[in-house]
Amino acid sequence: MGVDVAVTNLSKSFGKQLIWKGVTLTLPAGEISVMLGPSGTGKSVFLKALIGLIKPDEGSIVIEGTDIASCSEKELYEIRKLFGVLFQDGAMFGSMNLYDNVAFPLREHTKKTESEIRDIVMEKMDLVGLLGAEFKLPGEISGGMRKRAGLARALVLDPEILLIDEPDSGLDPVRTSFINQLFVDLNAQIDATFLIVTHDVNSVRVVPDQIGLLYHKHLAMYGPREMLLSSDEPVVAQFLNAQTIGPIGMSEEKDADQLAAEADIKLPPLPPIPLQLEPSNGIPRRAQRPPGEWCRLNGITPPPGSFTPTAATSMG
Ligand SMILES: Nc1ncnc2c1ncn2[C@@H]1O[C@H](COP(=O)(O)OP(=O)(O)O)[C@@H](O)[C@H]1O
Ligand SMILES: [Mg+2]
């Protein structure tokens, strides 16, 4: 069913370089969140902090009652079993065929027999649409197929939380649309908590339930898709609508705070909010939390009448 991931006041620096501070959000169980941000804002660092590969300087990350930021190595080892991760580069072993790549975590971390492993590997290859490609090497297939193979591998231990780093990097718009549909279909089928990191504005408009924006060393906003897509907060509106007008400049550090403080920035009118992607035919509807659940989890009082789910997001 997925689990909530509660992040409170998280900060991280490398030496003197502050990456981000005061990051607070709760990823709702079973839902899809997307974390957006310009390159170099620490999106990958955030993912690595969530799985305990990078230790934050401050703050907590609580999953099922355990704080990843302060727990013992032994507890961390247990908690990590809840995660599936698709890293940005796919991280496939080049000399192993896809079958062995996908089977790898099962052979490493479980005592399953080869026949049990076979069933699981084939099921996951089927889920990501790669049946028939089991014996190909990663170097023989397209970038899109490599991402899907990495996804199959991230799924073999049946994760409660799936972290995906820039799945669309290097993919053309059509391949990106296919992989976006795959995420929505997968979420409906396995119902884990998803966090997808991207800077692809088209994906963020139609895939997630929640959107977060990392910008200028902090979490500028995190909330329901409709809330961010209709936000007139200059940084959010500029980024989500890929505009040149607004506080974000060519080089990201350009006097952003000062510019954001200037109230007379005039942004173009916001385009209409597109419908959220629905699971493909034959795949069950995604389970939905009651409206307002995100607000409760994130300690926010919903303004009356605001972000009522659209028809596309309220199907139960
Ligand atoms: N292990 C590390 N040691 C020192 N600096 C790091 C490390 N990992 C990332 N950084 C720095 O943190 C910043 C954010 O990196 P990253 O999370 O990869 O950005 P993004 O994924 O948003 O493009 C970069 O300036 C990067 O150089
Ligand atoms: Mg990155």
Number of helices: 11
Q: Ligands bound here? A: adenosine-5'-diphosphate, magnesium ion
Quick one: biggest sheet? 6 strands, mixed
- The arrangement of helices and strands along the chain is EEEHEEHEHHHEHEHEEHHHH
Counting DSSP E segments of at least 2 residues, the number of strands comes to 10
Name of the CATH class of the domain at 5-82 and 159-297? Alpha Beta
Average pLDDT number: 86
Q: Order of strands side by side in the largest beta sheet?
A: 6-7-8-3-9-10
* Fold-level CATH name of the domain at 5-82 and 159-297: Rossmann fold
The gyration radius over C-alpha positions equals 20 Å
Q: DSSP strand (E) fraction?
A: 15-25%
Q: Which secondary-structure class do the elements indicate?
A: alpha/beta
Helical residue percent band = 25-40%
Shape: globular
The CATH superfamily of the domain at 5-82 and 159-297 is identified as: P-loop containing nucleotide triphosphate hydrolases
Name given to the CATH architecture of the domain at 5-82 and 159-297 = 3-Layer(aba) Sandwich
- Poorly predicted sequence stretches spanning 5 or more consecutive residues: 308-316
Distance between the termini: 15 Å
Features:
single chain; 4-stranded antiparallel beta sheet; Rossmann fold; binds adenosine-5'-diphosphate; 316 residues; 20% strand; globular; binds magnesium ion; 32% helix; 10 strands; alpha/beta
Secondary structure topology:
Elements (H helix, E strand, L loop, with lengths): L4 E10 L2 E11 L4 E5 L6 H8 L7 E6 L2 E2 L5 H8 L2 E4 L11 H12 L4 H14 L15 H13 L5 E5 L7 H18 L2 E6 L2 H6 L3 E6 L2 E7 H5 L4 H7 L15 H6 L31 H5 L19
Parallel strand pairs: 3-8, 3-9, 6-7, 7-8
Antiparallel strand pairs: 1-2, 1-4, 4-5, 9-10
Helix pairs in contact: 3-4, 3-5, 4-5
The protein binds adenosine-5'-diphosphate and magnesium ion.
The site of adenosine-5'-diphosphate has 10 residues, from helix 1.
